[in-house]
Amino acid sequence: MKQIIVLGAGMVGSAMALDLAKTHSVCLCDADNNRLKTFENKYPNLKIRHLDVTDTTQLKTVISPFDIVLSAVPGFLGFSTLKTIIEAGKDVVDISFFAENALDLKPLAEKNNITAVVDCGVAPGMGNIILGRYNELLKLTHFECLVGGLPKVKTWPFCYKAPFSPVDVIEEYTRPARYVEQGQIITREPLSDCEYVEFEKVGTLESFNTDGLRSILYTMSHIPNMKEKTLRYPGHVEYIKVLKASGFFDDAPVELKGKRVTPLEMSSKLLFNAWKLNPEDEELTVMRVTLRGKDHNGNDQEVIYDLYDEYCKKTKTSSMSRTTGYTATAMVNLILDGQFNAKGLFPPEQIGKYESCFDFIMSYLEEREVIYEKRYTTIN
What we know:
Layout: E1 3-7, H1 11-20, E2 25-30, H2 33-37, E3 46-50, H3 56-63, E4 68-71, H4 75-87, E5 92-94, H5 106-111, E6 115-117, H6 126-137, E7 139-151, H7 166-174, E8 177-181, E9 184-188, E10 195-199, E11 203-209, H8 216-219, E12 225-232, H9 236-245, E13 254-256, E14 259-261, H10 263-275, E15 283-294, E16 300-310, H11 319-336, E17 344-346, H12 349-352, H13 355-367, E18 372-379
Parallel strand pairs: 1-2, 1-4, 2-3, 4-5, 5-6, 6-17, 7-12
Antiparallel strand pairs: 7-15, 8-9, 10-11, 11-12, 13-14, 15-16, 16-18
Helix pairs in contact: 1-11, 3-4, 11-13
């Protein structure tokens, strides 16, 4: 039985730990003891341990006996934690959505002869994996990924709930958005280019620019048109723009009654309750990946992958935890089983290029009822 350590016991981290504990020995770590106690003595193959990942010496010591590390820490801790894991010489799969460029750690991963797979969630993650597969099959000209996690019950004003920290969500709303148009990287304000898109099981959603292409900007630079946009219920963007324009997301301290506080800290505190996704709140994940290009016979093809996934009442697991976490646990199994053993640091598109890896991940997700429906059309 393989030994796995999971860093972060949030909704996604804990879902991954429970999935892996079915067949492996798993240690779930977090700095929050109250969160950890939820899992104490409940599952035979699951152990818990208090761990502060910012203590790099302790982190290296704790992960030392394990076969692989699965990192699900908050985004602001992601890059430094990943760097420490690589320095410790441990294989790692990472789902933390950090602002830094993970590819900067590629030389370190190669030097330490380990396998590191980053951004291995739903988006970034599965969108990249699908892109990587079809980059082998078509001469691609277009890639678009639309994705969003949404509550089933719309609550005014934001109609939004998140399994992530509000700080991470606000980061997505404030980080400049990059996309590729006619071979050029274009940088726009986040929340821009808002468009309405129809989805069969959800209805009308609004899509807007966010900085979701990440590694694809560099690894798939030969594709002339690439874009990632976030999905929300109509009206959400306007409320966020009002907060942003009013300075509620600024990180420069202001003085209030003799105390200094940043608007971002205050907003995060207020939005925590408004956006908090409780363990049994029903929500859903919607994603549409569209690819266009020429096949080996010169025919124009369009491939669309649609995902619609809901909160699982049987296991009481959020859809975002399932769609994000099970991609990562599939990757963990690929590495532990020796099906992917290349050394270095790899974004998901460099995993999806291999047919065997792509098929394994798709089958792994399907076994857990995370279903991607494919439409393949020849364009006349």
